[in-house]
Amino acid sequence: MSDLLQVEGISTGYGDIQALWDLSFEVETGKATVILGPNGAGKTTAISAVMGLLPLWRGKVRWRGVDISRIPPYARTKVGLALVQEGKRVFKKRTVEENLLLAGYTTLRRRQRMRAAIEEQYQRFPILRARRKLPASTLSGGEQQMLAIAQALIPNPGILILDEPTAGLAPVIVKLIFEVIAKLKEEGKGILLVEQVVHQALGIADDVIVLNVGRVAHRVKATEISDMTVIEEVYFGTQAGTRQG
């Protein structure tokens, strides 16, 4: 089975307010599934449900064919899911290296494995090696996002889930982040990406889902998209290349 993750008709919400209706998709080994949509479309709600941060009202989440719908978030991390949340969430008072050590604390008990995992991320993000003894609070926004991604990769997950990883970053860093995601695909990681930067996201996508007010407005293979401007205008109500506030 090439599918790492199968999401089957999930619905959820907050309190008694439903925010997501009947969403289904798969993420395969070495492939990227991209969820697009304006603010309030239900993108973050969807990945929160996948990670167990929100309880499912209906539907199932399967990992390598096994139903994980009822296991807690930390257990989903242990089986191979990793989430990079929006907002560069790192331990800002800790050094860069301490952040990476903490990321592997529950999954990489042996010192040799931990050092190898950290070294791999230093090779992926050389700036983190240069900053390894500095508090994360001293890093730029782009460097903090690199650290957040490196943290998620320390346990060597099968799938990396990213919630708007380029939000608020300079164009040169946006380009670097997408290059890293493309490289991770080449290495065989499954990618589940939530984004508003349409052109770059479609550039690494295999499957595309557009959400609008919690419902699937469009679903297509990336190779079938011949005019990205049409998607932006129809589903975002905005001109190409702009974000909605």
Explain this structure to me?
- The structure is a single chain.
- The protein is 36% helix and 27% strand.
- With 245 residues, the chain is of the alpha/beta class.
- The chain has a 6-stranded mixed beta sheet with strand order 6-7-8-3-9-10, with helices on both faces. A 4-stranded antiparallel beta sheet has the order 2-1-4-5, covered by helices on one side.
- The model is unreliable at 238-245 (pLDDT under 50).
Distance between the termini: 40 Å
Number of strands: 10
Q: pLDDT average, as an integer?
A: 89
Strand content: 25-35%
> What's the overall geometry?
globular
Q: What is the CATH topology descriptor of the domain at 1-79 and 196-245?
A: Rossmann fold
Task: Give me the secondary-structure category.
Answer: alpha/beta
Give the secondary structure arrangement, pairings included:
Layout: E1 3-14, E2 17-28, E3 32-36, H1 43-51, E4 58-63, E5 66-67, H2 73-79, E6 81-84, H3 96-103, H4 111-124, H5 126-130, H6 141-153, E7 159-163, H7 171-186, E8 190-195, H8 198-204, E9 207-212, E10 215-221, H9 228-236
Parallel strand pairs: 3-8, 3-9, 6-7, 7-8
Antiparallel strand pairs: 1-2, 1-4, 4-5, 9-10
How do you describe this structure in short?
The protein has 245 residues and is α/β, with parallel strands linked by helices. It has helices at residues 43-51, 73-79, 96-103, 111-124, 126-130, 141-153, 171-186, 198-204, 228-236; strands at residues 3-14, 17-28, 32-36, 58-63, 66-67, 81-84, 159-163, 190-195, 207-212, 215-221.
